[in-house]
Design brief:
It is found in: Cell membrane. This is CDP-glycerol glycerophosphotransferase. This protein is an alpha/beta fold and about 350 residues long. It contains 15 helices and 13 strands. The protein has two domains: about 5-170 and about 345-355, CDP-glycerol glycerophosphotransferase, N-terminal domain (Rossmann fold); about 180-340, CDP-glycerol glycerophosphotransferase, C-terminal domain (Rossmann fold), CATH 3.40.50.12580. It has helices at about 5-10, 35-45, 80-85, 130-135, 150-155, 170-180, 185-190, 220-225, 255-260, 275, 290-295, 305, 315-325, 330-340, 345-355, and strands at about 15-25, 50-55, 70-75, 85-90, 105-110, 140-145, 165, 200-205, 230-235, 250, 265, 280-285, 310. It starts with a helix and ends with a helix. The relative contact order is 0.13.
Length: about 350
């Protein structure tokens, strides 16, 4: 019996628990991002005190956070049983293992994991047929978007979505929550930062192919930067971060805690800068392989013409940009207003309203 046939068979016998919510982040790879913020929001809300909040992980035993309640394995043969027992599904990517199916008794809430900078759907180069089928056929009951920009993109990528909610993303409240519980000094202590130098956060993107040229900053450049900055390296969530010279690797440390202490961000094709501009701190893009990346992966926005961010195509050019004393902070505000204008509380209110309407 195939997976889809199994799901349809299970639906004949399993009725959803009207007060059970299933959460998953990056298809079970993490306890993070908007699903985590939604979980913390709801577990602290008296209106949901009698709800069972369940997390799905690829490896549940790795997650021992004290606030976590029930955990299930997203790799288990019984995963779809637990999915069908939960009335509500909250995710930031696929919760259905890329197997879309009709779910009239359920509420599928999608918080996509970022503003789409890289191409998605039919415009994504080299996309597998399985993923394309999922894009075309998955039916979100509600999909949260940041702005009119990603609303337009997601309407094309996910044509069967029932309703789009352009109220921003709950992830904006993650830093707010951290600011109430931890100080920047404590974060620096946890990361082993002893210097008073400004902090540089370096977030390169996973390529998914063997690039023809060097795509990441070399050890020599990182060491040069470490003379001026404390450099923190955190790879994309698919990569395995390794130590490079004098930089601090923080592969499993909270990205949003690092936002609190970072003074400057360097990335390439990661949409993370859409979140970082919220704090009015410098952003530089390092895109030495932009032509190849555009051809092999596809991007929606050009760094210079669309975003107007400082972009370098070589390490020498990047160093010159960073040494110049003419950073245009107005660009950050313009990006925020166009691509990420809503407050996290707006998304929180919208999510609660959605859940309450089904009570």
């Amino acid at each position: 019996m195939g997976t889809l046939a199994m799901v349809k068979f299970l639906q004949l016998f399993i009725k959803p628990n009207e007060k059970q919510i299933l959460f998953i982040s990056y298809s079970g790879r993490q306890y993070s991002d908007t699903p985590k913020e939604a979980y913390n929001m709801l577990r602290n809300d008296p209106d949901f005190a009698d709800y069972e909040l369940v997390w799905a992980f690829n490896k549940p035993k790795l997650y021992k956070q004290p606030e976590l309640g029930r955990k299930i394995s997203s790799n288990s043969p019984t995963f779809f049983y637990h999915l069908l027992k939960s009335k509500y599904w909250i995710a930031n990517s696929s919760i259905d293992r890329l197997i879309p199916f009709e779910h009239k008794q359920y509420v599928y809430i999608q918080f996509w994991h970022g503003v789409p900078l890289k191409s998605l759907g039919h415009s994504e180069v080299g996309l597998s047929k399985l993923v394309q089928y999922w894009y075309d056929h998955v039916q979100f009951d509600f999909m949260f978007t940041y702005s009119d920009y990603d609303l337009e993109k997601f309407k094309a990528v996910f044509p069967r979505t029932k309703k789009f909610v352009t109220q921003g993303q709950l992830r904006k409240n993650i830093v707010k929550r951290y600011e109430q519980n931890i100080t920047p000094a404590r974060i620096k202590y946890q990361l082993g930062i002893k210097s008073d130098k400004p902090v540089l956060l370096y977030l390169p993107t996973f390529r998914g192919y063997d690039a023809k040229e060097q795509t990441n900053l070399t050890e020599a450049t990182l060491n040069k930067l470490s003379e001026t900055y404390t450099v923190i390296y955190r790879g994309h969530y698919f990569t395995d971060g390794t130590s490079k010279g004098q930089i601090i690797t923080a592969q499993n440390y909270s990205l949003y805690k690092m936002f609190m202490i970072a003074d400057t961000l360097i990335t390439d094709f990661s949409s993370v800068f859409f979140d970082f501009v919220e704090y009015g701190k410098k952003v530089y893009l390092f895109q030495p392989d932009v032509s190849e990346y555009t051809k092999r992966r596809g991007i929606y926005l050009d760094a210079k013409n669309d975003l107007h961010l400082p972009v370098a195509y070589s390490e020498v050019e990047l160093m010159n940009l960073m040494q110049a004393d003419n950073y245009d902070y107005q660009v950050l505000q313009q990006i925020k207003e166009k691509y990420n204008p809503h407050d996290g509380d707006e998304a929180a209110s919208a999510l609660k309203k959605i859940l309450m309407q089904y009570r």
